[in-house]
User: Which sequence fits this backbone?
């Protein structure tokens, strides 16, 4: 297929490929030359350019480095995220872009284990349940599970972020997927909490009205020490960068840490729950 046959407006994937081709040809590079610079074969470059192969996060970041678009407002990585996450809530693709580079991550969840801590089996049960309800398609379910694995992998880096997690007690008591899935998920939480860059606490039911947050939130501290807040309801997501609204959320998070069980007591509660499952 030549460049004239590729319609960039036919799909986001085609638009991505057409942009790669346009920038490559503007520099007078052959597909082999671009492949050498990016670490891919000419065949792979060709497949992406004509829309036969879906670009990956690694491919997108490599393209940004080669074409000098990494620090621009229109990166290949952001284009890829919009393509992959177009069906997700507003603000989430932008949040995920920052999440992979944050130096500190603070999570608070109610009812469901946070995505970054979910086992593949737990995530699959949730995705399949959404399909049965008609909320997403089977294809979107596959995308959701695979992308979650990519998010988790992005946190395994030479200098990993410090990750603080507060789980409402409902997260660990709500059965998801049966005994085997829940036992493995709780075991994974214990393994997560044992890492040197993590701190996991349970906010017990008994704190009652002292619970300072009534919706799940994610807080990111970036390398310049700025803080972003992402929160979502059932139908809406919102990424907030404004200090006047973000800092009170950070304060509320710290207050909730003080009301929550200690890390040791939290692990004891989770371990006791595992005994009741097995």
Assistant:
């Amino acid at each position: 297929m030549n460049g004239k046959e590729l319609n960039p407006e036919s799909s986001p994937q085609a638009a991505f490929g057409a942009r790669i081709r346009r920038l490559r040809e503007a520099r007078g590079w052959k597909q082999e030359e671009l492949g050498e610079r990016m670490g891919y074969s000419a065949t792979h470059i060709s497949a992406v350019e004509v829309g036969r192969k879906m670009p990956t996060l690694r491919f997108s970041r490599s393209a940004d480095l080669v074409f000098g678009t990494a620090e621009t407002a229109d990166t290949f990585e952001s284009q890829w995220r919009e393509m992959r996450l177009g069906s997700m809530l507003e603000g989430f693709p932008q949040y995920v872009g920052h999440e992979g580079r944050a130096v500190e991550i603070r999570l608070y969840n109610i009812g469901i284990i946070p995505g970054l801590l979910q086992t593949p089996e737990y995530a699959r049960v949730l995705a399949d349940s959404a399909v049965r309800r008609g909320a997403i398609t089977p294809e979107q379910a596959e995308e959701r599970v695979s992308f979650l694995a990519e998010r988790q992998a992005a946190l395994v880096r030479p200098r990993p972020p410090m990750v603080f997690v507060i789980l409402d007690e409902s997260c660990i008591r709500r059965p998801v997927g049966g005994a085997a899935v829940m036992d493995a998920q709780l075991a994974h939480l214990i393994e997560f909490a044992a890492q040197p860059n993590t701190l996991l606490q349970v906010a017990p039911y008994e704190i009652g009205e002292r619970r300072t947050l009534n919706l799940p939130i994610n807080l990111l501290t970036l390398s310049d020490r700025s803080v972003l807040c992402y929160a979502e309801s059932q139908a809406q997501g919102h990424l907030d960068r404004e200090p006047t609204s973000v800092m009170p959320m950070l304060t509320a998070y710290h207050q909730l840490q003080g009301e929550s069980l200690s890390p040791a007591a939290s692990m004891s509660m989770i371990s006791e729950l595992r005994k009741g499952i097995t």
Observations:
- The chain has two domains: 3-85, 92-113+154-277.
- The chain has a mean pLDDT of 89.
- The longest helix spans residues 138-154.
